[in-house]
Structures are given as structure tokens and as C-alpha cells.
């Protein structure tokens, strides 16, 4: 959702009442965005555009396209952009007054992040403006739309990440007010150049992917006006295969909402990665009847090929600009990917009306799946972005699924055919360990799975309610999620090192003292293999991102047994005010 600076309206009023030169407009635009703190490219936008013909444009490898940011770009409640800016170290700002938000780039890796603003119009304008910007070479760039979405509970659960093959436009249509439609019409909304709505049955639309729900017989539909676009399905499949085993975060509020969807098995699963198709419509819609319409509409415009899974507002506009830019040889539209992560369900559970469910999800706490969706979009998308950057020498000229057909250079070929005397490394990767142990994302960071709960014994009575005697979990930090952020548990916790790289623990005691412990495999290096943290102690943990294993795995036994209401995640400002002498450490190890 767009956020305006406090002086934005004043600036716009000045602009509307004055005749200003183009350079003045650029100058004021830079002032409006000037409160953003990271390194700024040395020239103003107007100067950069004027001199771009004499300078070498910056080669961009990946453009990450997000649609909104909630507040600032750093260090507050995140929107779609913030995790990318921080996680990909997008530290150089390029003023971009011809669009919604300035551009940020990591000039070392060639990764760019943009924020288009909400809706198809802003998205189309932003992509077109970027594609024509002479400061950047986008001819070989890959494009990744990474945003949140509503999700059809017939297909997936909140927090899930969905790669799209099809983009369907939900706005281009004819409409008659629902109060005036014929009795045998399902709705008053029907395709351009037709005279009645799609007649696919609701029973058919609930049978996802069935042949009975394919495009009605007759001449195939042609989407001549932007009603539907098919992306590069081979690239989508490659991205999915690369990222499908990414562990996704799961939070208690999500579980509570999932359990309401009793008749939707996929809606009750933990978050997962899948392929499904996306609908873009400027109107935020919600409810069972509109969910049926979205399925019918997607089937109709794709001639039975698309399966509606996610809903958003922008992507058909973005891709239309890509088509025009591709025609002008500015970009390669076959390198455009869409990844949408589910923040909310597109329709209500059977126990609620559409209005009740929308009101509940739009309340003070927002979408139950919002935080998980933002994390899923980044965690899944960054797997693809990092792979493209790491393999740029190959992927620049050959799409990833074609890369195996490209002959290696002579040095690489010699390296491949030369026998090695090095022993085979039989260590499991973090991804293999997460998958084999069925771990999932933890609210504090890292990954976990509860392995034991002593519910076969009498409960213990505590000041905060009855608890089981003990619970136990696996807990893993990896190079991709290397921090367990500061938090406090009421119960005592015993930690046991299992395998991997050493993990450093930071304990803030109530008297203000700081303890540092290293849990690891080698006692001769001072590693501890067991460690206790007493209840009421603030705790954080961190692992090296360049260790031999790329992860550290421990076990934890909690007594009395763990419950989420016994755990408190640290608020950075509050913890700094309590322990000011440790402010630098706290700012590093809190969300």
C-alpha cells in the first residue's frame, strides 16, 4: 500500500501551481525521496539521464519487482520490498521520479529492487519507465515479481509460495449490475465482446484441473486485449524445481485460521511451494462466489489451461510493458517470472460469511499469513536470484534450463575431466537435513520440529496455566537463516549439540550481565555440547554463514513444556532501554 511523505502534498501543490523546468521537477522529486538513507548514486536523475549517452549503463542481472512497502525501507514493519533490500544488500539508490519509488541496486551483484505501487496502471508505468531508463542495461536481465496474494483454499494454504505459468486479467470485461441480471445468469460480469456470462458450473469449477472444467466446446478463445498471458513455462518449472524444498515459516495464528477450512485439505497444510496461476484485478475481491468466478474466468481465457490459485492487482500490467519493451529489444520477456506468496485466503471458510471473514482478516492484526507470506516470497525467490547471480557467466546468454546445452570453456572442461584426489564430502546439505527431518520455519528464526510432548503424564500447574512436564524439539540454524533472534522463555531449556558448525549463544541475565557460549562439536576448542538456559533469560543465537557445513543442528528439552504464550520475542527499543550497554548486540540480533 502506498505511503506518502509528510511534505509530499505540499510539494505536489507547488508543482501544480507553478510552471517549472524539467530539471526543477527532477530536483524536487529527489528532495521528496531524500529522507531515505542508503548510499545514493552521485548524480541527480536529470543529470544522469542527460549524460547517460556518454557513460556505460550498469548491467543488471536480476530485477526484483515488488508492489508496496508499508513505511520506511529499513528497520520497521516490512512490506514486500524491505526484506529484499536488506537481504540482497541493495545499498545504492538511484532517484526515479518518473515512477512510484526510487530504485535500489547492489552494484556488486547486479541485483536491482523496485517498488511499482499498487494496481495494474502503476505497475505498467513503472516497468515501462525502468525499461527505457538509459542508466541500466536490462537486455539480459531476469525479472522476478515477488509479492503477496490471496489464495484459493482448494489449492494451497496461507504462507505458501506459488510460481505462475499464466497471468489472467480480471478487469477487462462487460458488466451488468447484479440486481438487473436475468434469473439464469450466475453473475452480471462476462467477457469482452460476449453477451452473457461464462456458463461453467460451480461444480465444475470446484474440480480443479479436471477435463470437464476445460474451455467450453467451440472455437478457441483468443485473448487479444490483454485478458491473459502465458509466461515461459520452462522457466517457471526450472524456478519451481530449484526452490520447491525451501522451508517456509509457520506461525500459531496461521494454524488457527487453517483449521477453520475443514473441507479444504490443501488449505490445512503447512506452507509449501507449488505451481499455480495468477489473476490480476484492480478491485480487491473476496468470497466463495467470486472465487468460483475467478476459476471459471481463468479457465475461459486460457482455453482450459490455467488453474486459478492466487489473486493480486498488478502483474498483467507489468507483463504488458515487458511485451512492448521486448519488441523494442530493451528486455527479454522470456525471462519474466511471477512468484506470489499467500497472505490470506480468497474466500471464507464454511463457518463464516464472506463479509465476516473479510472483516476479521482486515482488522487490527491484519492477515494471519502476512508475515509468513513476506518471508516466503523472499526465502523462495532469493534461491532463484542467488542461483542466477552465481551462474551469470552461463545464464546471461542461455536460459537456465538450456544451460546444460552450452559447451563449457576450456578451463572448466579440463577441471571436469581431471581426476581429483580430494575425498568425497558426504556431509548432508542444510536443505537435505531440513527436508529429511521435516523441519519448518520458527518465529524466532531458523527451523524446528517438535519431537516429543509428555502428554502421557499428569499436567503441571504453573502460574500461567497447566503445562506438560517436558517437550523437545530439533532446532537448526543455517547460512540462509543464521540468527535466532532475542527472545525469552518462562521455562528452563536444556540444549544438546548434534551436528554441524558451532552456534554462538548470547544470554542477557536479569542483572544486566552478558554470557556468551559456543555450542559445538569440539570440546578441545572450548565448545560446549550441552548448555542450560534458565527461564527468564533473554537468549539469541547466531551461526557463521561461511562454515564447513552451512548449518548447526541441536536438540532442546523444555521443562515445563513449551507453549507459545510462554515465549516473548524481543522488541528492539524495549530491550535496548533495559540493557543499554548491550545496544549494538541487541540491534544486530533482534528483528
TrEMBL record:
<dbReference type="Pfam" id="PF06516">
    <property type="entry name" value="NUP"/>
</dbReference>
<dbReference type="InterPro" id="IPR009486">
    <property type="entry name" value="Pur_nuclsid_perm"/>
</dbReference>
<dbReference type="InterPro" id="IPR009327">
    <property type="entry name" value="Cupin_DUF985"/>
</dbReference>
<dbReference type="Pfam" id="PF06172">
    <property type="entry name" value="Cupin_5"/>
</dbReference>
<dbReference type="InterPro" id="IPR011051">
    <property type="entry name" value="RmlC_Cupin_sf"/>
</dbReference>
<feature type="region of interest" description="Disordered">
    <location>
        <begin position="201"/>
        <end position="222"/>
    </location>
</feature>
<protein>
    <submittedName>
        <fullName>Purine nucleoside permease</fullName>
    </submittedName>
</protein>
<dbReference type="InterPro" id="IPR035994">
    <property type="entry name" value="Nucleoside_phosphorylase_sf"/>
</dbReference>
<dbReference type="InterPro" id="IPR014710">
    <property type="entry name" value="RmlC-like_jellyroll"/>
</dbReference>
<feature type="domain" description="DUF985">
    <location>
        <begin position="431"/>
        <end position="570"/>
    </location>
</feature>
Amino acid at each position: 500500500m502506498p505511503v506518502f511523505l509528510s511534505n509530499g502534498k505540499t510539494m505536489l501543490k507547488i508543482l501544480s501551481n507553478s510552471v517549472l523546468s524539467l530539471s526543477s521537477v527532477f530536483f524536487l522529486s529527489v528532495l521528496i525521496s531524500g529522507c531515505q538513507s542508503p548510499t545514493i548514486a552521485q548524480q541527480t536523475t536529470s543529470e544522469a539521464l542527460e549524460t547517460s549517452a556518454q557513460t556505460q549503463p550498469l548491467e543488471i542481472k536480476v530485477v526484483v519487482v515488488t508492489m508496496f512497502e508499508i513505511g520506511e525501507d529499513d528497520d520497521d514493519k516490512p512490506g514486500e520490498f524491505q526484506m529484499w533490500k536488506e537481504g540482497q544488500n541493495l545499498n545504492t539508490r538511484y532517484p526515479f521520479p518518473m515512477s512510484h519509488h526510487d530504485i535500489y541496486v547492489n552494484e556488486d551483484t547486479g541485483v536491482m529492487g523496485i517498488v511499482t505501487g499498487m494496481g495494474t496502471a502503476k505497475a505498467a508505468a513503472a516497468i515501462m519507465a525502468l525499461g527505457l531508463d538509459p542508466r541500466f542495461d536490462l537486455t539480459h536481465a531476469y525479472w522476478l515479481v515477488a509479492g503477496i496474494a490471496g489464495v484459493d483454499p482448494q489449492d494451497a494454504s496461507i504462507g505458501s509460495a506459488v510460481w505462475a505459468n499464466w497471468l489472467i486479467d480480471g478487469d477487462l470485461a462487460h458488466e451488468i449490475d447484479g440486481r438487473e441480471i436475468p434469473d439464469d445468469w450466475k453473475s452480471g460480469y462476462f467477457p469482452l465482446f460476449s453477451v452473457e456470462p461464462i456458463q461453467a458450473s460451480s461444480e465444475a469449477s470446484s474440480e480443479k484441473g479436471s477435463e470437464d472444467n476445460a474451455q467450453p466446446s467451440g472455437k478457441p478463445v483468443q485473448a487479444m486485449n490483454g485478458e491473459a498471458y502465458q509466461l515461459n513455462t520452462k522457466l517457471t518449472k526450472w524456478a519451481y524445481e530449484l526452490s520447491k524444498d525451501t522451508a517456509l515459516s509457520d506461525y500459531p495464528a496461521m494454524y488457527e485460521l487453517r483449521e477453520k477450512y475443514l473441507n479444504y485439505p490443501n488449505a490445512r497444510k503447512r506452507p509449501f511451494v507449488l505451481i499455480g496461476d495468477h489473476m490480476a484485478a484492480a478491485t480487491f475481491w473476496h468470497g466463495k462466489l467470486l472465487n468460483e468466478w475467478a476459476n471459471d474466468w481463468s479457465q475461459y481465457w486460457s482455453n482450459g489451461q490455467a488453474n486459478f490459485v492466487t489473486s493480486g492487482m498488478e502483474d498483467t500490467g507489468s507483463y504488458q510493458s515487458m511485451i512492448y519493451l521486448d519488441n523494442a529489444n530493451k528486455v527479454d520477456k522470456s525471462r519474466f517470472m511471477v512468484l506470489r506468496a499467500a497472505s490470506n485466503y480468497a474466500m471464507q471458510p464454511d463457518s463464516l460469511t464472506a463479509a465476516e471473514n473479510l472483516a476479521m482478516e482486515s482488522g487490527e492484526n491484519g492477515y494471519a499469513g502476512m508475515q509468513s507470506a513476506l518471508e516466503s516470497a523472499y526465502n523462495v525467490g532469493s534461491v532463484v536470484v542467488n542461483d542466477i547471480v552465481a551462474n551469470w557467466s552461463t545464464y546471461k546468454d542461455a536460459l537456465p534450463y538450456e544451460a546444460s546445452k552450452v559447451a563449457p570453456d576450456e578451463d572448466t572442461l579440463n577441471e571436469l575431466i581431471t581426476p581429483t584426489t580430494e575425498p568425497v564430502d558426504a556431509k548432508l546439505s542444510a536443505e537435505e537435513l531440513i527436508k529429511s527431518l521435516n523441519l519448518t520455519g520458527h518465529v524466532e528464526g531458523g527451523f524446528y520440529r517438535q519431537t516429543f510432548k509428555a502428554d502421557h503424564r499428569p499436567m503441571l500447574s504453573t502460574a500461567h496455566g497447566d503445562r506438560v512436564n517436558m517437550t523437545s524439539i530439533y532446532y537448526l540454524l543455517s547460512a540462509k537463516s543464521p540468527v535466532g533472534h532475542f527472545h525469552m522463555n518462562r521455562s528452563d531449556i536444556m540444549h544438546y549439540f548434534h551436528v554441524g558448525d558451532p552456534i554462538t549463544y548470547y544470554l542477557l541475565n536479569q542483572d544486566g550481565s552478558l554470557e556468551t557460549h559456543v555450542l559445538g562439536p569440539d570440546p578441545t576448542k572450548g565448545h560446549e555440547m550441552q548448555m542450560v538456559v534458565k527461564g527468564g533469560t533473554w537468549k539469541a543465537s547466531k551461526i557463521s554463514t561461511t562454515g564447513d557445513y552451512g548449518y548447526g543442528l541441536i536438540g532442546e528439552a523444555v521443562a515445563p513444556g513449551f507453549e507459545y504464550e510462554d515465549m516473548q520475542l524481543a522488541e528492539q527499543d524495549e530491550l535496548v532501554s533495559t540493557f543499554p550497554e548491550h545496544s549494538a548486540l541487541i540491534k544486530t540480533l533482534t528483528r
